[in-house]
Amino acid sequence: MNLPIANAKLPSGGSAALTQLARSDWDAYETSWDFATLPLLSPDHQAGTLETTYARLRTHWQGMTDEMQRLEEENNRIFIDAYGLQDELTPEVPIEEITLTCNPAYRYGVKGTEKEREARLCADTMIPFVERNYNLIELGPKGTGKSHIYSEFSPHGQLISGGEVTIPKLFVNNSNGRIGLVGYWDVVAFDEFAGREKTANKALVDIMKNYMANKSFSRGVNPMGAEASFSFVGNTDHNVPFMLKNSDLFEALPSQFHDSAFIDRLHAYLPGWEIDVIRGEMFTNGYGFIVDYLAEILRHLRSEDFSNRPDQFFKVSQKISTRDRDAIYKTMSGLLKLIFPDGSQTEAEVEELLRLAMESRKRVKDQLARIDSTYPEVDFHYIGSDGEKRGVTTVEEEEYPQFYHLKPAQDPKNQEQEKSEEKSDERADDVTQEKSPVATAPSSPAPKVKSLSEGHHVFAENRKGISYDKIFGPYIAGASRIVVTDPYVRYFYQIKNLMEFVEMVIQRKPPEDQVHIHLVTGPDDGNVSKQRELLDSIADACVGTGIEFTWVFDGTGSGHARDITTDTGWKIVLDRGLDIFQAPIRKDGFSLGDRLQDHRTIKGFYVTYVRTTDQGNQVA
């Protein structure tokens, strides 16, 4: 990036010419108001270096753009709901269409959006096609297309089921000396690799570990080498905070592979929960490369080595082990081959890829520290061209700091108590007293426990101040399974009510908890395909939230009861189901009732609470 700076050695008028050049560049990009002043030249974001000034400005405007995008989409959603245009319009606004004085989507080719990160994560899945002996694992929710790229993308990759692997098939058959898959394919992908109930041959696991570390294997004869990369893909059973609190991010692996020596040989852990569920609109209807043609390009790049390219800008910490550094460099080399095969990358672009490569390895190493206490925690950082130390964190570390660094068999309360005891400078007798059951009570007043009771409640029509949280919240608290029975969840507004119920459950539950919501409803004979599409959309929206949403049609056609049951022992009988609100004023897109249930006018309805067991009748 070339920007003007004052330099006394420049020819007369040189500084003015460079300044005008930058202003012209700015004007060429911008069509919004107040673009006469280039913010980079203003004192508001000035820092010690030009690079830091630019980074500070970019961060500021990225936040402004994201907020404006959120507001515009929210306004669109309000108007679409108000005028019933759900079948004709969508609320999404592309980042490029956000109008601001400075939109990062148009400045120097840098977007920095979630979609760009997702695109780079998708590129991560292709690294095994361009890097020899690269070991990648991707675990995440169902439906994100984890195995699709290995079955459809290249004729040089082989996708096999995790349960079909044998030593002769994968490595070499001793009876005839024929080499296995690693000798024929560039990539061997193991589908459905996760599953704690699965078993694997110990000898196979040992040979795999040796091959992943040394690029060779032996079955009692001569050692043999191969260049095939391994990719392991599978589904997770729980959401991220649940895994971080109760186990680790590798919890879904079979016990033979949930082994620190095997995991340490993985170069990168791709967070499959950040990849969007595959939908029809993601497939292009335009032109593109024939897959075989692109596959040959990638295969040709396997013989290249781009791992030293970042060295001109950055230096990876010397405190990181050789295995960690090799993993980072191999990931970095693969990303550069895929995104910048011509070597046109800038320093800023290299830094983003370097951070992604280090994050992918850090995710592996941090989980190893949880699984095996002999693995120390590692400070993943690099040194910039300005000599500044820059740390790397994972997204999960930033989102769930209360769980991320837990050690095995620890929970947040116990860990905080241990830290408090370690730092205590009080007398020994006081310490002993603190550890007693009486003294461990929290200093703040304990939350009052409200006893829930059975009952029948009638709500008069045209009343306000009622919400799902008030009438359902206390009774579904702590439930891990909720069954909603309503034969008339058929039309858009009825399915929207169901979505708001799901939102209420998400807001109520701790982020690390898993809740299964199951709907039993009747088919809409007039447009059952649209009904299916909307219900499936709710299931897609719940991916990664800790909510598993499923639904089924009641084929009897005789069901009329509407109720909600929980596995904590409560049954909530509803005469109207979830359809308790009157239709909004359709011409008032800014009505508070559109967004806040408390401000809606209700229909007349009743609710009956019935205790089906003696458990679960108290909530905090």
Automatic annotation (TrEMBL):
Q: Where is the composition biased (Low complexity)?
A: 435-450
Q: Where is the composition biased (Basic and acidic residues)?
A: 408-433
Task: Tell me a Gene Ontology molecular-function term this record carries.
Answer: peptidase activity
Q: Does the keyword Hydrolase apply?
A: yes
GO:BP terms for this protein? proteolysis
Superkingdom, taxonomy of origin: Bacteria
Q: List, alphabetically, the InterPro entries matched.
A: BrxL-like, MITD1_C, MITD1_C_sf
Q: Which residues form the MITD1 C-terminal phospholipase D-like domain?
A: 465-611
Q: Which residue ranges does the record annotate as region Disordered?
A: 403-454
Q: Transit peptide among the record's keywords?
A: no
**What CDD domains is this protein classified in?**
MIT_C (cd02685)
Q: What keywords is this UniProt entry annotated with?
A: Hydrolase, Protease
Tell me the Gene3D superfamilies matching this sequence. Answer: MITD, C-terminal phospholipase D-like domain
Q: Report TM segments.
A: none
Q: Protein name, please?
A: Putative ATP-dependent protease
What is this organism's lineage?
Bacteria, Pseudomonadati, Pseudomonadota, Alphaproteobacteria, Rhodospirillales
